[in-house]
What does this fold into?
Amino acid sequence: MNKIIIFLTFLLFANVSASDNFYYQDGKKVKLIPLQSIQKFSKIDSNRKMLFYRSNRIVVGVTDKIIVKLKQDNIEKYILDFNLTKVKKLGKNLYLVKVKNSVKTIDIANKLTKTKGIKYAHPDFIKKMRKR
It folds into this structure.
């Protein structure tokens, strides 16, 4: 009986702690492989938590920001529905928003992408600059 409880607890923990390990690009899922700690990027600032992933052989950092492209210009509804903060307008129907918890950035971006009225949403990825 104890083994069953331990196993079920493990499954529950694994399910709760697992977040989406993909994002949408051009309507297709792009796999993200979580990385442990990595020091390839200089710190942006001490208050921003950054999670690191490998995507298509590139290491990317994910903070608490999401880029959202709307089909029509009304971001306020989505800010309320998803508990976001508007950072700034980037262009026509294009916004940079902030989530409350950076661990949920990818999950919220994926949910936004599936929402009617949103053309696309993806984390504002931080990439290491490369020399040409």
Notes: The chain has one domain: 19-127.
